[in-house]
């Protein structure tokens, strides 16, 4: 009987430790096929989006020949951090026309802003999420150098 109680207490303690180590919103991460997220994240920023703005711009530098015209669209997401050590307050989402050379997600602790880059084809998807669901942004950094960032909804009841 003592072994059973000891086993149950150890299981509860290990389960509690795992729950503390697992990232908040970890249930929204896809399967880790390449085993890149096996370790406990060394940093997590989790933001609940409360406001967003869209900027679309065209730029034509006049001192360059031939004169290139550059167009870009950017989403600025603002909200409140949800986990205890998070300091994130904003997410700057930019879009790449081809989506072939996307930049690695990065978090600037001075401005408390996460920068994400998505293929242009994802713009409509993100806008639809922002218009219809409660949206979260998650950034995870792992000891092995792996970085994960996503924009996701919570669990939504099907209609």
Largest sheet: 7 strands, mixed
Helix-strand topology string = HEEEEEHEE
The amount of beta strand, in percent, is 35-45%
> What would you report as the Rg, rounded to the nearest angstrom?
20 Å
Quaternary state of this entry equals single chain
Structure classification:
alpha+beta
The shape, in one word, is globular
Distance between the termini: 49 Å
Physical arrangement of strands within the biggest beta sheet: 4-5-3-2-1-6-7
Task: State the low-pLDDT regions, or none.
Answer: 1-20
Query: Tally of extended strands?
Result: 7
How much is the average pLDDT?
84
Portion of residues within helices? 10-25%
- Number of self-contained structural domains: 1
Number of helices: 2
Structure commentary:
With 159 residues, the chain is of the alpha+beta class. It has one domain. Helices cover 19% and strands 38% of the residues. The protein has helices at 2-21, 123-132, and strands spanning 43-59, 70-81, 90-96, 106-108, 113-119, 135-141, 147-153. It has a seven-stranded mixed β-sheet with strand order 4-5-3-2-1-6-7, covered by helices on one side. It is globular and about 50 Å long.
């Amino acid at each position: 009987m003592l072994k059973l109680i000891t086993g149950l207490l150890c299981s509860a303690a290990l389960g509690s430790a795992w729950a503390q180590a697992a990232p908040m919103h970890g249930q929204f991460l896809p399967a880790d096929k390449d085993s890149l997220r096996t370790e406990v994240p060394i940093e997590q920023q989790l933001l609940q989006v409360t406001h967003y703005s869209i900027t679309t711009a065209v730029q034509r530098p006049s001192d360059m020949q031939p004169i290139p015209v550059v167009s870009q669209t950017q989403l600025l997401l603002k909200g409140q951090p949800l986990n205890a050590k998070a300091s994130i307050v904003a997410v700057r989402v930019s879009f790449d026309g081809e989506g072939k050379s996307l930049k690695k997600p990065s978090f600037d602790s001075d401005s408390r802003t996460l920068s994400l880059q998505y293929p242009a084809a994802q713009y409509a998807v993100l806008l639809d999420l922002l218009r219809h669901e409660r949206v979260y942004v998650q950034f995870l950094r792992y000891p092995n150098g792996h970085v994960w960032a996503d924009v996701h909804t919570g669990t939504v009841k099907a209609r």
